[in-house]
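Exercise 7b. Backbone tokens:
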């Protein structure tokens, strides 16, 4: 059996430095992050003269609009998560440490090709982009990653743009394989100078949803007070926590439904109601501040996935934490106020079943037609 890999390739402007990556999505399993492994192909002149070539993994965090950068202000931080000299190689790479794809690329590209492997720290933030407004220009706010290969005297040398190549990558999380406990909450409200209380029970059909799935919200109202419930509303809220700011918490309504069916709920009455919500990006296009999954050119865009953390206290100061919750409100009129209940849930992409393949070295081949240039902004 012959299996063809899709290989991402990009050349520097002068054509003397070329990077090859087998994939651009690297999964965070909470216990660790997948290694970034690839191959760099150098021009023969660079190899013969011993030109130093460096490889780096950069996390770019933009926390302000590019158009507001005036008077020397800069709203972007670049974190260098890994840096290594690729040529001349400090030591001969061990064959046992190479992936099957690296072995095939080295055999195909010849003696001017050199492998590299970079690791990402466990607490590195996930790739997230905040959707800009329809009239905004420049780079959007968020967290992005790229691999940078350049020729220079040291790893701190900016290098010449003609001999520098950058290729965007993503650090992603996929949904867990098991469902958690079914979300359920009960809230009550009593009234000053009025007997009895109003009870609201909200239950979701499950805790974990994939993008595009419909959320079933079961609402139970027990009115033991002398107030009247006039209508109810259910909504999905996206919570965004920009950790670098002390007050950087934002909430955006992604989907909502309001109904008076079954209302009014008079004193001594009960109401059982099922509401449906479906958080989708199609309903939130061009809405400024909605968090999206970090995306590469030509990739499909979707709402940002929930951020999974090993501990609520372990948050990278340059990260953006995304969460989701369903909120149900009961409206009692101007004097009665309202009663609300909130249930958090997880919204993520499923883990692709074809991501992991077991193959022997003899069964792997690289089709030249599948090696295509993928252009990203340098």
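Sequence design result:
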């Amino acid at each position: 059996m012959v299996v063809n890999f899709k290989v991402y390739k990009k050349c520097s402007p002068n054509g003397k430095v070329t990077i090859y990556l087998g994939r651009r999505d690297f999964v965070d399993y909470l216990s660790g992050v997948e290694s970034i492994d690839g191959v760099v192909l150098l021009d023969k002149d660079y190899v013969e003269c011993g030109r130093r070539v460096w490889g780096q993994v950069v996390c770019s965090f933009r926390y302000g609009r590019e158009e507001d950068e005036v008077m020397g202000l800069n709203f972007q931080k670049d974190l260098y998560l890994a840096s290594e000299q690729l040529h001349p190689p400090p030591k001969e790479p061990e064959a046992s440490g190479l992936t099957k794809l690296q072995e095939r690329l080295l055999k195909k590209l010849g003696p001017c090709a050199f492998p590299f492997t970079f690791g990402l720290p466990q607490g590195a933030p996930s790739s997230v982009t905040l959707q800009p407004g329809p009239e905004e220009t420049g780079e959007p706010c968020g967290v992005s990653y790229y691999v940078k290969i350049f020729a220079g005297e040291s790893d701190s040398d900016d290098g010449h743009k003609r001999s520098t190549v950058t290729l965007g990558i993503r650090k992603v999380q996929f949904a867990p394989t098991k469902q958690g406990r079914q979300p359920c909450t009960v809230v009550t409200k009593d009234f000053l100078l009025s007997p009895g209380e109003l009870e609201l029970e909200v239950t979701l059909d499950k805790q974990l949803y994939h993008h595009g799935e419909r959320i079933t919200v079961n609402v139970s109202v027990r009115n033991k007070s002398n107030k009247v419930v006039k209508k109810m509303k259910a909504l999905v809220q996206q919570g965004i926590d920009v950790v670098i700011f002390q007050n950087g918490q934002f909430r955006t309504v992604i989907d909502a439904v309001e109904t008076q069916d079954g209302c009014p709920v008079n004193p001594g009455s009960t109401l059982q109601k099922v509401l449906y919500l479906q958080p989708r990006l199609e309903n939130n296009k061009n809405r400024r501040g909605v968090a999206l999954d970090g995306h590469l050119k030509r990739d499909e865009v979707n709402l940002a996935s929930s951020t999974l953390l090993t501990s609520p206290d372990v948050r990278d100061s340059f990260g953006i934490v995304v969460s989701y919750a369903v909120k149900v409100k009961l409206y009692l009129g101007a004097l009665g106020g309202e009663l609300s209940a909130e249930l958090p849930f997880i919204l993520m992409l499923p883990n692709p079943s074809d991501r992991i393949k077991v193959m022997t070295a003899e069964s792997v081949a690289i089709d030249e037609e599948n090696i295509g240039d993928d252009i990203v902004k340098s």
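Instructor comment: Helices lie at 44-48, 100-109. DSSP finds two helices and 23 strands in the chain.
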